[in-house]
Amino acid sequence: MKQKNYYIIDFDSTFTQVEALDELVRISLKDNPDKEKIFKKIEEYTNLAMEGQLSFSESLAERVKLLGANKEHLKKLVTHLKKKVSKSFSRNAPFFKKHADDVLIVSGGFKEFITPVVKKFNIKKENIYANTFLFDSEGTIIGYDTANPLSQEGGKVKLMKELKLEGNLYGIGDGYSDFQLKESGHVKKFFAYTENISRNSVTSKADYITPSFDEFLYLNKLPGSISYPKNRIIAIVAGSVPEESVELLRQEGFTVVAEQEADEKTIQKAGILLVADKIILDSKQIKKATRLKVIGYFGHAQTELPVSFCTEKGIVIFDASKTSAKGANAISQRIIDFINRGSVQHSINFPSLQLTAVTKTHRIIHIHKNVPGVMAHINTVLAEHAINIDAQYLMTNPTIGYVIIDINKEYDKQLLKELKAIEHTIQFRVLY
User: Fold this and answer.
1) What is an example of a Pfam family matching this protein (predicted)?
2) Cα separation, 317 vs 356, whole angstroms
3) CATH topology of domain 233-341
4) How much is the average pLDDT of 230-259?
5) CB-based contacts of 225: which residues, under 8 Å, 6+ apart?
């Protein structure tokens, strides 16, 4: 009999982008003249515990003493945290609905702010394990329930002993207390979560480093909102590209690597190339990046890049001559829209096509040589697999055909193999 899987997920800096107690003190001390001094002290206690240099119970006690918060502050915190859910968790909300019985939130934080934040993700109230505050008659926080195992050193381990869950347990978190679940043998695998913060003392001991929840789903062959984790898409930056443009790609979740730090293997795997003005690239250089899908050039690519060669290889180019008044961010945004949706509006070498995101269908991109019969072959393959097409777009120029297919039915891997194997195919990928 197949064993049940359980997903043990941390809250602070994992499910959310921030440490909730740190955010609560920002709210509660807003008008306190010593707020910066107190906040730094609380932040210090947080980091010492997360790095395993201070016991969790000592850290928690000291932080709560400094809070000076009440129920009204907690309401404001909840509103704030709902906007700070980690991006990759937000886009994978359907996973939590489907696995409502399998997901546990296990945190050294507090139910008073965790429960209302995770509620919309269909996480069951009884599957939320966290501390609880103690209040005085006026609603001011005066302490917490010290009998709760999660308020104590090694609290997550103690809780798992009490729960006695049978099956395969997977731990996901950013802190030392999360790693302790692996160290004690209570989880089968520990995934160090680094979307928001990376702690070497934790990542060095993890089974896997997961820069996003997409990566966790991908590694464990679980369905996600995107077919391929963005952190696995490498963006190489060549020359003095505007930092705000680079940061936009970084925030989107791509792995950004400076050209001087990229070895041959990294170049080969790169999917995005962001190039400063006046840097000249030839076909031999581009040929080394065998997975390259898109180039953003901060100049006039027609004179500095082998545009025809890129087109033949199915590589989309956006350049400064095609950007709007939005400035440096325009090129990066075009790249993001292409990777996320397949949009090629304002490309200099592909037929212009702007696409909106879809939420209830799968989107497939097929780039091929512009020769007769390819489109008919694509539709034949779809028909043989009884795939219902929700939407289909075809744009061509003298060199290539660019097809977007939205299908509203689950498909098998054989369909993808057959589409990829169609004669004259240049590039093929599944967006989601």
Assistant:
1) 2-Hacid_dh
2) 20
3) Rossmann fold (3.40.50)
4) 94
5) 91, 92, 94, 214, 432
CB count in 10 Å sphere of residue 31: 6
The listed CATH number (1.20.210.10, 3.40.50.1000, 3.10.580.10, 3.20.20.140) that belongs to domain 5-219: 3.40.50.1000
Which residues is 366 bridged to in the sheet?
A: 403, 428
Residue 245: pLDDT band (50, 70, 90) is: very high
Cα 13 to Cα 85: distance, rounded to the nearest angstrom: 9
CA dihedral 226, 231, 233, 238 (to 10 degrees): 150
- Rounded to 10 deg, the angle between the 155-163 and 176-183 helix axes is 50
- pLDDT, averaged across the chain: 91
Q: Where are the domains of the chain?
A: 5-219, 233-341, 362-430
d(CA 302, CA 323): 14
- pTM higher than 0.90: no
Q: In this structure, how many other beta carbons lie within 10 angstroms of the beta carbon of residue 147?
A: 7
Q: Which candidate, 302, 335, 14, places its Cα nearest to that of 175? A: 14
Q: Give Cα 321 to chain centroid, integer Å.
A: 31
Residue 63 burial (CB count, 10 A): 21
Can you read off the two tokens belonging to residue 45? 């206690």
**5-219 against 233-341: fold identical:** yes
Spatial contact of 208 and 194, defined as CB atoms under 8 Å apart: no
d(CA 343, CA 324): 16
Q: Write down the pLDDT at residue 327.
A: 61
In this structure, what token pair is assigned to residue 284? Answer: 């031999």
Q: Is the pLDDT of residue 326 over 60?
A: no
Span 400-425, mean pLDDT?
90
Other beta carbons within 10 angstroms of residue 37's beta carbon come to: 10
Determine the Cα–Cα distance for residues 276 and 260; give it in Å rounded to an integer: 14
φ and ψ of 191, to 5 deg: -110, 110
Tokens encoding 342:
């397949």
Topology (CATH) of 362-430:
Alpha-Beta Plaits (3.30.70)
The answer to whether residues 214 and 88 touch, using CB atoms and an 8 Å cutoff, is: yes
